[in-house]
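[step 3/7] fold_predict: job queued, chain A
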Amino acid sequence: MNQTPGQLFVVATPIGNLEDLSARARRVLAEVAVIAAEDTRRTRQLLSSFQCDTPLIAVHEHNEAERVPVLCERLAAGEDVALVSDAGTPLISDPGYALVQACRRRGIRVVPVPGPSALLAALQASGLPTDRFAFEGFLPRKAGQRRERLAALAAEPRTLVFFESVHRIAATVADLATSFGAERPATLARELTKMHESVVSDSLGGLAAALRAGTIVERGEFVLVVAGNVEEQSGGLAEARRVYALLIEALPADAALKLTARITGVKRNALYAALRA
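[step 4/7] structure written:
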């Protein structure tokens, strides 16, 4: 007789306010055989808040490869497993992809239990366009690599969402102001759903100045929402690309770039970034 496999529940947990844990998430976390947690200490605190004593197993970026086969065996044997991250929705800049992928390959059912997400919470509160957006997660830690990535994103017409640590937030916002232009609208959200929640909207230059001055406290977890490139949205860069494509047939790349900028009025840096993207 074949053993019916268990199910992997991907459970979103609060990013701050414990009241955001859904009734369904509570039930699932209490009923599964084991909870795969990014940080067992933080998850144990969450479970204690509603008197849940489900066993925990640590699954993080350093041990995920070795934990996946173990959890798949338990699932194949009929046990249900819940996957949680430190906070918010698992897999969004957090471990878990390898486990979900392995379950899908083996025919094990993956059940999402949606809920809190810092990404969506910041986007909702930003006042910036939400019909189309691109999530970039954490930018590279090294300054050179970070600036190179931002140069490639400068022409992106969709709203952009970034996560950033307290240690790099000031440098990242300063680099964004340089790469995207100091006047680009943006919103910086800090400690969402927590006691010291802060959502500040300004230009990138204004946010950079506020961070330098200490007006925005560099403490906690940050989500940065940045408006898309208006020139790209209005078709300016599309026309510039067309003109450049014609000029490059007869001119060196640098000369074609300069002349395209003069003809179309699109800034040379924006065009350069768009052509590299």
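[step 5/7] annotate
The chain has twelve helices and ten strands.
The first helix runs from residue 23 to 31.
exit 0
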